[in-house]
Design goal:
Number of helices: 17
Number of strands: 16
Shape: elongated
Structural class: alpha+beta
Strand order of the largest sheet: 1-3-4-2
Strand content: 5-15%
Radius of gyration: 29 Å
Helix content: 25-40%
Distance between the termini: 109 Å
Amino acid sequence: MAEHKNDSQDNAARAAARWRRRFSILVLLMVIPLALGLSIGSRFLPDRPVTYDDIEEHFKYGSTGGERASGFPFWIWQVLPQVCAKYLPGEGYASLGMIYEPGQPIPVGMSMRRNLGLDRVFLNCAACHAGTVRDTPDSPPRVYVGMPAHSLNLMGFQNFFFQCAGDAKFSADYIVPEIDRQAGRLGMLDRYLVYPVAIALMRERLLMLRERFAWAGKQPAWGPGRVDTFNPSKALFNFPPDKLSPEEGIGTADFPSIWEQRKRKQRDDGQPMQLHWDGNNTKAEERNKNAAFGTGTTPPTIDLLAIGRLEQWLLDAMPPKYPYPIDRALAEKGAPLYAEYCAACHGASGQDFKGSYVGHVVPLEQIGTDRHRLDSFTPELAQNLGSVYAGYPWRFQGFRKTFGYANMPLDGIWLRAPYLHNGAVPSLRDLLEPGTKRPKAFCRGYDVFDQRKLGFVSDVCEEGGRHFFHFDTSLPGNGNAGHEGKAFGTEMADDEKTALVEFLKTF
């Protein structure tokens, strides 16, 4: 009986052990996929931008959402200047005029977002609206937000990636080892799956965009501080380039400043100011969302909360004051000259935008400036822009074709060189000369300030191995004529022009 009892107990124990083993295996079969799923999910599911409490820092480095659709995986972006160095004019992205601040892994005008398992980077608002100023060649640069990015070579930035994508080195065989060298040894998943796939997808997208943007190769080089504002929209709308009229093929214009947007919501007649260089929209919100397309956003990917935060800040963001000495007595002599020749079109001062023609479009025949940017924005494009955000409450409704250029307020005018909508005149003093006496060619992209002429030094074309852009006003889209004659003050005496420039320093 005892033996039988012991046998029964042994059998029960063995059965219990078998059950425990099976249960453990079952648990493992459940836990391992769950753990693996959680691990994969925690890496590949988050969509998380890097944000900043300080609004100016957020403007410089915060996201608009473009990384979701257009973002470059950070480490691929980081190593491409080494992999494709021959396609850059100098060392790294700084050779394209991008601004690096101490302690920041990315330049001003780039943002980072965790998306699809990788940190991704792309352009933000500051790429086009932040720049540097030096007092002398030996001075450290100061970064000013809201000013035009006068040193950024956006066409060079674009061409670098297009050229690199067409190179045999744009492959995992070259890029992954360089990431390994700079970032530290990659894990198996990243080395053999994540980065090879990301590299292939990035290359495919860049080659597609290169083909779609081939029209830009037929334009004169934009140079730093400029962009073709609306022809990229035609490419995105699949306008056939060979069917476009020759007149609309060049739409190059300077980046604008973006301070004091609240005052631009209403002009003297109670209507909103006409925005963009040609005044083709009066709705600031549409202007901002359209500008966000330049940062890689699309209607499904735009970060409305982030853009809304920047919009609120820009309503009252002020331009920096002129940091150099002002001859106050001379400026007082310039004040009545400004009132006579400038105030009606550009506002009573840099802080007071009242003026009967401020925010109105002046017909091209009257202003006489280069017409290419105006002609590039066609009625057909205005109509097609009306389809953007179709189905959303914020669908574009305000784009219209105009036939001239808009009069702009002059807040922070000292930081907005070169001048005219296409940046064809290097300084305010030069702008007060007739077109025939303005520089026929000059160099753009240098950030040392010319206190006398009020602009950036434009006769220095090389410094420390970096070559600045040779701007030729005879090329299509680069014309420097217009805004001249008695009504525009170009017939004033030299001492009067000097006094007016001194007064403009107070803006």
